[in-house]
């Protein structure tokens, strides 16, 4: 029998249990585990979408969807919200199965050793993946490696280990999918499950307002308020941090490189046909906010530069250093009528922190690619 503390647990891990020990039984593990599994699936699918939009392989780039314009806002908001909900679920699940993690003797057979090794991989990948994602939303990088490739690689490890775990535990999970009449819920397990649900509810409600605008007032635990700056959307990197503060508008030029290259002053750009689009900025870190952007269509600039139909474009910032100073507009974005070189936000000239004098804004696109302080656009062949 498994004792509450799990210390004197005997060899037969599946033996019937009672009292507090049933908080550590297969029914509890199943009830929490299926929510956990659903969360992993949601995070994985939305993560694949984010990865595809940010770093599309060559075959995908010409086919990227620019609609719905709020698509990335929803998928990435869901990614981060679900990742946050995984924290309490993961902790409760680990607590529930703790006696099983520390069985004596630690290894009974080759098969048992293999199963325990796979659980070890599962638990470490899950803890690390969720932790990395969480601290990334706070823009805190207490490690020497780049976040994205590690989060990406670990996602595959986690999904593989989860699938293996589900396959191994399927018979048990099936047997405990529903509460059996012989095993009434009891106040202890009911409290545990209700408490877990409440914890998920609290962490979700206090953060999800960073992307769900009507709930923004509740988002007291979100790293950034969704309407943080004077112009109504958060600032990811300020002009000062990017080293482009104090830019002289009179001396700024937009260079468009292509078969028929040209330069434009800010006044000349302002004199071109202006278009307004309501589009969100959706940061990979989970916050998002919609605004009315006004500026010149990128496709108009590309046409004027003699770009062949279906060409992509590269956007280069005046920012000299940093990973986000250059972005590419694959053809669907480059030619979309809603993709703007924006000069205004919500009717006012862009502030320095939002990319003055000009920034890119495109539909259904990760915020990290909405390049600020644009100085140059290049036609790609
Ligand atoms: N040149 C440049 N553009 C940039 C960035 C940057 O660091 N440098 N940050 C990007 C990121 S990660 C986001 S989420 C958006 C945020 O835009 P905002 O600060 O105007 O809200 O700008 C993007 N454009
Ligand atoms: Mo971002």
Query: Which cofactor or ligand species appear?
Result: the ligand Nc1nc2c(c(=O)[nH]1)N[C@H]1C(S)=C(S)[C@@H](COP(=O)(O)O)O[C@H]1N2, molybdenum atom
How much helicity do the residues have?
Answer: 40-55%
Q: The CATH topology of the largest domain is what?
A: Fumarate Reductase Cytochrome B subunit
- The SSE order reads HHHHHHHEEHEEHEEHEEEE
In what range is the share of β-strand residues?
Answer: 5-15%
General form? elongated
**How is the largest sheet built, in terms of strand order?**
2-1-10-5-6
What do these coordinates show?
By secondary structure, the protein is α+β, with helices and mostly antiparallel strands. It has 2 domains: 17-218, Fumarate Reductase Cytochrome B subunit (Up-down Bundle), CATH 1.20.950; 231-380, Oxidoreductase, molybdopterin-binding domain (Sulfite Oxidase, Chain A, domain 2), CATH 3.90.420. The protein contains 10 helices and 10 strands. The strands form 2 sheets. A 5-stranded mixed beta sheet has the order 2-1-10-5-6. Strands 3, 4, 7, 8 and 9 form a 5-stranded antiparallel beta sheet that branches. A hairpin with a 4-residue loop joins β1 (253-257) and β2. α1 packs antiparallel against α2, α2 (71-96) packs across α4 (110-137) and α4 packs across α5. The longest helix has 29 residues, at 26-54. The radius of gyration is 26 Å and the shape is elongated. It starts with 25 loop residues before the first helix and ends with a strand. The ligand Nc1nc2c(c(=O)[nH]1)N[C@H]1C(S)=C(S)[C@@H](COP(=O)(O)O)O[C@H]1N2 binds at residues 233-237, 242, 281, 283, 317, 319, 322, 324-325, 354-355, 367-368, 370-373.
